[in-house]
Design brief:
- The chain is built from 19 helices and 15 strands.
- By secondary structure, it is α/β, with parallel strands linked by helices.
- The chain has three domains: 217 residues, HUPs (Rossmann fold); 89 residues, Tyrosyl-Transfer RNA Synthetase; 78 residues, RNA-binding S4 domain (Structural Genomics Hypothetical 15.5 Kd Protein In mrcA-pckA Intergenic Region, Chain A).
- A hairpin with a 2-residue loop joins strand 11 and strand 12.
- Helix 10 crosses helix 11.
- It is globular and about 75 Å long.
């Protein structure tokens, strides 16, 4: 299959502006396209990963990516999908986050100055020096407020309250597309499906100011078969930084996806051949375990490297299979003095991050969901002390699939 057919067959495409023209463009030319990333956190998360997957498909087919880091737009904040205005960030915070993004992206995308190698730019370079009155006269004149208010990103916020600061975001993103079109010949913008209105704004600006054609495509947001947004763990977002989410935890997230989701996710977030994925489509229940292991390994390999993926896979096999090794099990360290003095099991659970509160820990114990060193904990008043650390470590199991090695520090 060609690129366009591949993107459709994998279910990646949500909407596009000119299907026939885009199909022809991708099949007959090598284009420059861009995807924007606002560095609002110090790490990419799994939602960004979806965008990188699409970018990699495009790059593999010979098209040239531009990674746009939103050093300027992050100072405003995208209202899309937000119930409240974002916290105002400093320039130093934004720059540090942008640097982290660059490092993480380099694991997936080939950057350089030649051919289809990706270019990385920061919209702070052109947005922060703009004269506001000039911007209003040259860009603002092309945006209809009536039309902007029909955009979902604004409609959902009008009742709650939308600041004029955020109202400028669509103009700034539209100007980004225009700037990249003029400077680099960028003809297409990709983004998550929640960016549809913003993408249309840029296309219209280019048409009005330059009389050029520009195109847009959005891709599927990462959701379960029930329509719930994916990428949330008990600890928060599914980050790509292994200091925030360990490779083992990351692997286990994908290993534990629902049966109804695994085949679709193999298509969306891996590069496994569609013909190989097809053999899983008629399977169910335990038969899908191979597909889940494949999904978990492939995604973890892309994010954390093959060595880390193998360690995570081996650790999972040891824990859930016949083995009993704890070598690669996720771990947490607790001060020896606390253990020797005795610490309540509920306090320990909160301290090592297995539960967010003692109330959650109490419910876990009362529901029979906590095991320590192979023994089910029935007493919420249990005191953990040195006797629970025969070899300097204690194995805690939460539910059926969450294991943690607690080590005396």
């Amino acid at each position: 299959m060609n690129l366009f057919e591949t993107l459709k067959a994998r279910g990646l495409i949500a909407q596009m502006t000119h299907e026939d023209e885009i199909k022809k463009l991708l099949e007959t030319e090598k284009i420059t396209f861009y995807i924007g990333f606002d560095p609002t956190a110090d790490s990419l998360h799994i939602g960004h990963f979806m965008q990188l997957i699409v970018m990699k498909h495009m790059q593999n087919a010979g098209h040239r990516p531009i990674v746009l880091l939103g050093g300027g737009t992050t100072m405003i904040g995208d209202p899309t999908g937000k119930t409240d205005m974002r916290r105002m960030m400093t320039i130093d915070e934004i720059q540090q986050n942008a640097d982290n993004f660059k490092e993480q992206m380099s694991r997936f995308i080939e950057f350089g100055e030649e051919g289809e190698q990706a270019r990385i730019v920061n919209n702070a370079d052109w947005l922060l020096g703009i004269n506001y009155v000039d911007f209003l006269r040259e860009v603002g004149i092309h945006f209809s407020v009536n039309r902007m208010l029909t955009a979902e990103c604004f409609k959902s916020r009008l009742e709650k309250g939308l600041s004029f600061l955020e109202f400028n975001y669509m103009l700034m993103q539209g100007y980004d597309f225009y700037h990249l079109s003029e400077k680099f010949g960028c003809v297409m913008q990709f983004g998550g499906d929640d960016q549809w209105s913003n993408i249309l704004g840029g296309i219209e600006l280019i048409r009005r100011r330059s009389q050029k054609s520009a195109f847009g495509m959005t891709f599927t947001l990462l959701t379960t078969s029930e329509g719930k947004k994916m990428g949330k763990t008990e600890k928060g977002a599914l980050w790509l930084d292994k200091e925030k989410v360990s490779p083992y935890e990351f692997y286990q997230y994908w290993r534990n996806v629902a049966d109804d989701d695994v085949v679709r996710l193999l298509k969306l977030v891996t590069f496994v051949e569609l013909s190989e994925i097809a053999k899983f489509e008629q399977l169910s229940g335990q038969e899908l375990n191979e597909a889940k292991r494949l999904l978990a390994f492939e995604v973890t390999k892309m994010v954390h490297g093959e060595d880390e993926a193998k360690l995570a896979q081996d650790a999972a096999s040891n824990i859930f299979g016949a083995g009993d090794s704890t070598e690669n099990m996720p771990s947490a360290e607790v001060e020896s003095a606390l253990i020797s003095a005795g610490i309540s099991v509920l306090d320990l659970l909160v301290k090592v991050g297995l539960v967010p509160s003692k109330g959650e820990g109490r419910r876990l114990v009362e529901q029979g969901g906590l095991t320590v060193n192979g023994e089910k904990v029935a007493d919420v008043a249990l005191t953990i002390d040195d006797s629970h650390f025969p070899d300097g470590e204690m194995i805690v199991k939460k539910g059926k699939k969450v294991f943690l090695k607690v080590v005396k520090g």
